[in-house]
Amino acid sequence: MLFTSVHGTILTDASLEDAYLRKIDLRSAVLGADQLLNARIFAITNLPSDFADDERVQARLAECEAALRSGSNSTAT
Q1: Total-model pTM
Q2: Which of 33, 56, 59, 61 lies most in the core, judged by the most C-beta atoms within 10 Å?
Q3: CA–CA gap between residue 59 and residue 68 (Å, rounded)
Q4: d(CA 31, CA 76)
């Protein structure tokens, strides 16, 4: 499976609001968990390992997955 990689990219000042982050490798990107809370993230998104225990990020991921399964385009919080 082909992923888009942002290896080493510094995203700390980037707005990821409503960004569709599916099949993207963010493992080595520099960003904050808060940035992902308004983005569309999925189980197939490779997130940095330090976000694995962040309950807010995991809740957002579950919300986006549910919206994808239901066919809903809206994943707004």
Answers
A1: 0.83
A2: 61
A3: 14
A4: 20
